[in-house]
Amino acid sequence: EGSQLVSLLLETKPREHVVDFCAGAGGKTLHLAVLMENRGQIIACDVSKKRLDDLRTRLKRAGVDNVHPQLISDENDRCMKKYHGKMARVLIDAPCSGSGTLRRNPDMKWRPLNLESLIQRQQSILAAAAPLVKPGGRLVYATCSLLKEENEEVITDFLAKQTAFRLIPVAAILARLNINLGDHAEGTLLRLLPHHHATDGFFAAVLERQIGLS
Q1: Residues identified as active-site
Q2: Whether domain 2-209 has CATH 3.40.250.10
Q3: Which of 2, 39, 108, 204 could form a disulfide with 14 if both were Cys (CB 3.0 to 4.6 A apart)?
Q4: Where do the domains of the chain lie?
Q5: How many Cβ atoms are within 10 Å of 204's Cβ, its own excluded?
Q6: pLDDT tens readout for residues 54-91
Q7: pTM flag (> 0.85)
């Protein structure tokens, strides 16, 4: 599933410092902890105390101790400033329309007004998370949406404003991981399509903060 691929795209290593910016229930956080062999540090952020409390329970059950849940008021919470420029990897599993899950949720409803609000939130989250990444570090932006407005257009807007970042071709990462997803994962961005991959629709972009640029 695409949700598991996201963690792999970070290509994180043990002892690195990582932020899961929208940790939610913590599925990707736990996957990262496994990939990092329970070493290093993962800051798992969320705006919901309940979700973070549930995550703490899951962490304890799994015997994971390199994850530090962090409650934030929103993406611009000042408590995150101390991590600016220090994180090797940052994951954003952004809130989205969920349009890629329609095969499982055919009754789901959304409105254009809701979409515009989501896009603004996605742009704001990306802008807030970018300073966390250290030079040479990596940021992965992902959604379970099929809509270009939430995916490619958000990334285009980000790159126009954040010139220190560049896209890393997803195809090269998948090749290193020996993962073959066919034609729809051969370029710069990852797109999983329900009718091609028998998964939920999914999008991911991998961004690197270039050394020497600010």
Answers
A1: 144
A2: no
A3: 39
A4: 2-209
A5: 25
A6: 999 999 999 999 999 999 999 999 999 999 999 999 99
A7: yes
